[in-house]
Design goal:
Number of strands: 0
Number of helices: 3
Low-confidence stretches: none
Strand content: under 5%
Structural class: mainly alpha
Radius of gyration: 15 Å
Helix content: 55-70%
Length: 74
């Protein structure tokens, strides 16, 4: 069976954001299935895209981005 082609994305995140990712992955994991931080990011992308399709909380999401002082310096 051929492997799925995947794109790789590299982003710079703060230590606090990394801690949130780690904690979320830990909380979503179970003894039968460990969840990676990458899986958490993919889940978040899908959730945000779904909410955008439903016009839910877009202003709230934009304000979170503004509050985080997202830096484009990479």
């Amino acid at each position: 069976m051929p492997k799925k082609e995947r794109k790789r994305l590299q982003v710079v995140i703060s230590e606090e954001q990394d801690a949130l990712l780690t904690r979320t992955a830990y909380e979503l994991s179970s003894p039968e299935r460990l969840i990676s931080k990458s899986e958490v990011v993919r889940l978040a992308i899908e959730k945000i895209a779904r909410e955008m399709g439903e016009d839910i909380h877009l202003d709230e999401l934009r304000s979170l981005l503004d509050d985080e002082n997202v830096s484009e310096d990479a």
